[in-house]
Amino acid sequence: MSPRAWSRSVSGQVFALQAVIVLLLVTSAVVALVLQARHDSTLNARERSLAAAEAFAHAPGTAAALQSPNPTAELQPRAEAARRASGVDFVAVLGTDGVRFTDPRPELIGARASGDIARAAAGQSFTEIFRGRPSHAVRAVVPVRDTGGQVVGLVSTGIEIQNVGEVVEDQLPLVLGAGAVALLLGTGGAALVSRRLRRQTRGLGPVELSRMNEHHEAVLHAVREGVLIIGADHRLLLANDEARRLLDLPPDAEQQPVGGLGLPPRISALLASGRIATDELHLAGDRLLAVNVRPTQQYRGQSTGTVATLRDSTELAALSGRSEVARSRLRLLYDAGVRIGTTLDVVRTAEELSEVAVPRFADFVTVELLDPVLRGEEPSGVYTEMRRTALSGVRPDPPLQPVGDLIRFVVPSTPMAAALDSGRAVLEPDLTIAQAWREQDPEGAAQTLEYGIHSLISVPLQARGVVLGMANLWRADTPDPFVEDDLSFAEELAARAAVSIDNARRFTREHAMAVTLQRSLLPRVLPEQNAVEVAYRYLPAEAGVGGDWFDVIPLPGARVALVVGDVVGHGLHAAATMGRLRTAVHNFSTLDLPPEELLGHLDELVGRIDMDQAEARNGAGITGATCLYAIYDPASGRCAVARAGHPGPAVVHPDGRVEFPEVPAGLPLGLGGMPYESRELQLAESSRLVLFTDGLLEDRDRDLGGGLELLRQTLARPGRSPEQTCTDVLGALLSPAPSDDIALLVAGTRLLAPDQVAEWEVRADPAEVSRVRNAASAQLGAWGLAEVTFTAELILSELITNAIRYGGEPIRVRLLKDRVLTCEIADSSSTAPHLRYAATTDEGGRGLFLVAQLAERWGTRYTGRGKVIWAELPLTGGAPGAVGALLMPGLEDLEDLAW
């Protein structure tokens, strides 16, 4: 290309413009740098001058030298040394009147300094650009103060203007060189841009490019097909007029992402995907468009985007519309299957039916159910009365009977009654001419029509051929009435909902039965005892009752057993199994077994139950059961604890310290094969023993460790009653919808007072019987139990005599005064007596029979070192009359009756 042609082209004109702009920018930058360098040099000179002046003015001895008889002699050498050290051009010491005491030029000493130094004499330091004699300079003047703060002189330092300018001149070659380099680089860049532009514009000038653009616009906007050009970043680069009309694009659509143009989702997804499409049909508003998509030609191996053409095919809209309606109906049925029946609650299921149909099918939906269905009972054959259970709509406060009202269908020809009679959906397209519907409630019908409701479909809710209720679908804001094609869809929707409602009804019935069974199996009132102060909580899971249980069982010797257990699962089976295990624990506790032995017996029982149920149910037995059993003795404060697969207890000490003692973790009940172990805890009075099931700790959003830590924090507050402790624990750990049962038992420990216990050591000598009997009689008199003294002496005589004859040493006798009087005789023998009828020829065997007759309860408890035979007496009342008469011969003679 010739130089003249190049200068007339777009690339040549752009190069010239860029060269001028670069020259102006570089020149401006050089001038700015020079000015900045001068400003920086001046600012540096000010700072150096001020620093040197302040340093000399505040130097030790400066103020004293100014007040000496000959300031010049003392200060002139020091001033010159300071000037050379600081690099300034002069350091002059002045009097407050401006007379020089020192100066680099000796001829100026004694002369008055020029310029305004009144500010410094007044005590203010300052810097200035001084112009005058002896030279122009950047000067700083600082006052010198004595120890009393009085200004006694001035120090003036500075750098001459000529020296400041020399610094800038030294930097000028560097600045000019940098400017030249920048000019060369800018010019070279402009040349590269011009070269690239010349290659892309083919060397055309502005006129040729303008004419080419006119031709492009004329062709692009004249065609009757929409054209879209989309970049590789999915932004709209170009849209012709037809494309804007067909897609209703906003004026500023270009350069926006395709996804943000408000296009129909399917068209937007197609354009953003960049995939090749040929005559794909897409609905855009009321138009049916045939869309073609092709990638644009690649540039240097990279895709530059896509081009799409759109052709209006509205003549196919009717067919597409029907297919879209069918697709929307299928989608609605799918949503109904997902959203209806998410809970096993009858009312909530009816509400879900009303919510899913609004507003995609109806503007208002009401659901009525039979009262037996709401209660979980089998529906009756009479369905002229139903309870309104759900109401949903697009507007609030419709003139329809509210939820909870009893709906009666007294006019047989109404759409509701006709639907119930036929078992099929009934259509009333125009309610204004529905005479039977208006006759049932003229006033309500008038309000409904005035509100705008104009069309109705009534459809029965049937499952297994039984009517559960009905649904009424109303249209108000939708101008189109229901048509015959809508009936089959309404019946399908109602059928799906009816199955879910029937499932919820069955669950409600089973849940009610399980709740009733469980309430009958759990303790309603805890027994009276003085060993612990007990509070408890039981909460069933959201999905229904389960197999958690707790118990408090009084034991002989003022002791008490605390039990917490858990049967895995929910429903009737879990509740029934829980009742069997609770009864078994009660039965085993009467044997007064240690915790580990009781759990062993319970494990064997569960194993047998599991085998029986597995055979009856083809292998489906108990899926799991756990238990924690603790025995607390208020006489010693000791608590023996054993557990079978259950969480261990928490101990809250009186000072608020919380401990989770390590109790050996046995296998869950029913697995068998391994013995259980117990641990003995020593509990102080007013401690809290907290037993719980795992439902308290574990939750959907919390694991076992997190639950234990939260429980620890909640329990670590001393001074609370067990009842308040239960309330606080549930308030902190209970989730809004617990997924498992929760059983919580809090026991506040008590100790028997020392004066409530009496003990004696007994030697293996029959003479000891009288001694212990007399000591016990005295103790009973001290306790105010004279009424039971005779009976207690008789029982003690029999039991001590038996221990001396058949037991082994050591022998101990203990009396406990609590709610009852407990007599305990302990020896080292493991042989237990048995109650029997003695024959007339037997020499013994009648003593135990008499003990059983005189005591309220008696029994044997085995220990690690032998056994304890105990008997309980009421705190009031003596021996029964008949037995009393029998025993008249005397207590000493009765010793021969021992077994």
Descriptive notes:
- The protein is an alpha+beta fold.
- Helix content is 41%, strand content 23%.
- It is built from 25 helices and 31 strands.
- The strands form six sheets. It has a six-stranded antiparallel sheet with strand order 12-11-10-15-14-13, sandwiched between helices. Strands 17, 18, 19, 20, 23 and 24 form a six-stranded mixed sheet that branches.
- Strand 17 and strand 18 form a beta hairpin.
- The longest helix is centred in the first third of the chain and has 48 residues, at 10-57.
- The protein is flat and about 145 Å long.
Give descriptors for this structure:
31 strands, 6-stranded mixed β-sheet, 899 residues, disordered C terminus
Present the secondary structure layout.
Blueprint: H1 3-8, H2 10-57, H3 62-66, H4 71-86, E1 90-94, H5 118-121, E2 126-130, E3 137-145, E4 151-160, H6 161-200, H7 206-222, E5 226-230, E6 236-239, H8 241-247, H9 265-273, E7 277-284, E8 287-295, E9 306-312, H10 317-339, H11 346-357, E10 364-369, H12 371-374, E11 385-393, E12 406-408, H13 415-422, E13 426-428, H14 435-440, H15 442-451, E14 455-463, E15 466-475, H16 485-521, E16 532-539, E17 546-554, E18 560-570, H17 572-589, H18 595-616, E19 625-633, E20 638-644, E21 650-652, E22 658-659, E23 665-666, E24 678-682, E25 688-692, H19 704-715, H20 722-733, E26 742-749, E27 757-762, H21 768-783, H22 789-806, E28 811-817, E29 821-827, H23 847-854, E30 857-863, E31 866-873, H24 881-886, H25 891-894
Parallel strand pairs: 20-23
Antiparallel strand pairs: 1-4, 2-3, 3-4, 5-6, 5-9, 7-8, 8-9, 10-11, 10-15, 11-12, 13-14, 14-15, 16-26, 17-18, 18-19, 19-20, 20-24, 21-22, 21-25, 25-26, 27-28, 28-29, 29-31, 30-31
Helix pairs in contact: 2-6, 10-11, 10-16, 11-16, 16-17, 17-18, 19-20, 21-22, 22-23
